[in-house]
């Protein structure tokens, strides 16, 4: 039986939400072993003088713990 853990991460991108998700998952894979999935909990944008400066996502990342 596998045991998994969920951790919340925030990732940002100047390109878009898809890029923010991909950067967050890439970074999670560098630190966490056995990443199995992710759920995008929230999306937001940061504005600067009415223009989009950054796209941000809050994700819950699931990874399986080693035996």
TrEMBL record:
SUPFAM superfamilies: Dodecin-like. It comes from Hyphococcus aureus. InterPro entries: Dodecin, Dodecin-like, Dodecin-like_sf. It comes from the Bacteria. Pfam families: Dodecin. Signal peptide: none annotated. This is Dodecin family protein.
